[in-house]
Amino acid sequence: MEPFRIHILGCGSALPTLKHNASSQVVDIRGKLFMVDCGEGTQVQLRRSRVSFTRVQAVFISHLHGDHCLGLIGMISTFGMLGRTATLHVYAPCEFERMLQMQMDMFCKGLEFEVVFHAVDTTQHQVIYEDKSLTVASIPLEHRVPCCGFLFREKPLLPHIRRDMIDCYQIPISQINNIKNGADWTTEEGELVKNSRLTYPAAAPRSYAYCSDTRYIPTLHQLVKGVDVLYHESTYDSEHEARAKLYYHSTAAQAAQVALDAGVGKLLLGHYSARYDDESVILREAQKIFPNSFLTAEEMIFDVK
């Protein structure tokens, strides 16, 4: 099976600490790399994680708080110094376009690659990126500024050919694509061979939802129903639920409730408040509601399956 992995580059919140970096992840889907958020220090974390700079083809910015976007201009500048020529696509709230262009005019003159900006409507759940193997959709969230998450979903694969049956019935290679797309086969003797005998199902499509800074949304589970892996911010434990509500963040228990209601396979916790020297209190709280919960940490890799 082709890889579908989440590389954690940073899982801290806005206040810098010596333990955690600002928010950033790389999603590796079948060898295609997509960055989600790009806080300060992201490019150093890319080096530490041994993730190739040159293979990042798009960056998705959830919202315009510095711990989620201030690392982007430095990374673009580094791309230029490394001789990048491939287009970089940036998906972000529309307000970011003017600021990004000003930064590029100041710090990134003479780039040999194009940076293409795509404005994201953070109030809509809609597909914002698509290629032959996957889609990325926005997930409206509720924060102090316009904010959205991102849902990465593989497209269904065609069924696999049963080579033994192809050889048995001497089916020509020219017909294999037709059979993958559902066609039956009729032999020279007039025997009908059903498609189900000639193929076996491909693996089920995999999915990953990234829910950045947000207060608890009771209906959020409807948009991430059944995903294999859910990342949901868990800035506080329940002792600080009032603070979470005030600053439009979530507790670990609230993140776990979304995971439980959505019936996801695995919950990843992150965006920890700097007040926690030990995030085990966050993990314990989440696992009481949703046992398959995990703390994220820099340089960790999670498989989506």
Number of domains: 2
CATH architecture of the largest domain: 4-Layer Sandwich
What is the averaged pLDDT score?
95
| Distance, first to last CA | 10 Å
Q: Tell me the name of the CATH homologous superfamily of the largest domain.
A: Ribonuclease Z/Hydroxyacylglutathione hydrolase-like
SSE topology string: EEEHEHHEHEEEEEHHEEHEEEHHEHEE
The biggest sheet amounts to:
7 strands, mixed
| Backbone shape | globular
Taken as a percent bin, the fraction of beta residues is 25-35%
Query: What kind of assembly state do the chains in view correspond to?
Result: single chain
User: What would you call the structural class?
Assistant: alpha/beta
What top-tier CATH class of the largest domain fits best? Alpha Beta
- Rg, rounded, reads 22 Å
**Tally of helical segments:** 10
CATH-defined fold name of the largest domain: Metallo-beta-lactamase, Chain A
**Low-confidence stretches at least 5 residues in length (pLDDT < 50)?**
none
Q: Care to count the β-strands?
A: 18
Function: Zinc phosphodiesterase, which displays some tRNA 3'-processing endonuclease activity. Probably involved in tRNA maturation, by removing a 3'-trailer from precursor tRNA.
EC number: 3.1.26.11
Pfam families: Anti-Pycsar_Apyc1
Active site: 67
